[in-house]
Amino acid sequence: MKKLIPTTAIAALLLGALPAAQADTLKMECNVSGPMKPYCEYVKQRFEYETQHKLEFLEMPAASDEKLSIYQQIFAAKDGNAVDVLSVDVIWVGLLDKHLLDLTDKVKDLEPHFFPNNWKNNIVDGRIKGVPNNVDAGMMYYRKDLLEKYKEQPPKTWEELTRIATKIQQAERGAGQKNFWGFVFQGKAYEGLGCDVLEWVASYNGGNFVDPQGNITINNPKAAKGLNMAASWVGTIAPKGVLGYQEEESRAVFQNGDALFMRNWPYAYLLTQADSSPVKGKVGVMPIPKGGDDGIHAATLGGWQWAVSAYSKNPDAAVKLVRILADEKTQKTKFMVTGEAPARVAAYADPDVQAKAPHLAQFKDVFANAVPRPSTPTRSQFPKVSKVMFNAGYDVLSGRSTGEKAVAEVEERLKRIKGREWK
Fold first, then answer.
1. Across all residues in the chain, what is the average pLDDT?
2. Are the C-beta atoms of 80 and 309 separated by less than 8 Å?
3. What crossing angle do the helices spanning 37-51 and 328-338 adopt, rounded to 10°?
4. CATH number of the domain at 24-129+302-368, please?
């Protein structure tokens, strides 16, 4: 005699086999134990309410090189359980291309809402591999009170900045501020210097080392001129110690009231306006200066993107999460929590965003025209390219090389790295 399966059991089996009845658990990178906690919790609440899926967080180191190393280990193992949605540096898209899900058909409708160069940076061989999270671009900070005191206007060119910095540095030291400097920036041999170097070169119309088609373009007189100009600052308007400065060392000097100009990223603005800041209310921001009257304002593009692991076991749910992360409400929330500049253009017209950081409205055009590092065309070889860029800049700044010698050597090194083609 056959055993009959109860009707309720059959129903349960059938329902259990339907994908719609399953709630997936996704893992997203978000440091919920730190200052990002309110943002992480906002995303979790929205995602779980709108999709009925669950969301867990993966905490990562703050240092981008450490984070990249961990992701490369996860991807090498093709681990589909480690992370579904991850935050990717603007320079990693080409490097991690084969490990990132193709989002083209899922997110291409979002393109009009973002800064064009930021969006294009996420396209590899015609495929969209990420959606902008926040945008960064190099900015020049200056002391409004000191320019007014000495009857100067914010400089439009590097030549003007050099003149004004020399004049005011000398005057302030004569007035008793012996440790006052005209200009601080990132001069240590690391990725941050590579960003500064790109700005110096591009501002003189010297290109960006490798063009979007993968051609090596660095060996030209205009690029050399930009490097030589930067070298002239070290020991004159910038301390020799700038050769060891990263972002925070630069900010410490400027925020303490000991520098007239500072090159940094947007995050520094809100910190300079803190109640404890000696320069609160005295700081202005302006575009990175041009290289002479016929140069351009060239701010290096920075920022982070949201991407989906190609090994995710829940790609459809992960795409839904990315679309939530990319919408205007979420981007505004992240800005209000972290101060990071939103990647969505419409956020810059938001009254709350304008009230918290009025300077961001001035940089809408800067973000729109920011110069990307040559990471996408050089793909997995960009880390080597980047090292060549910042080491060449360091050699010129430290007096070991000249702009002319450096650009010729960089060309040869990049040719060896490229071989027949960028891989």
1. 92
2. yes
3. 160
4. 3.40.190.10
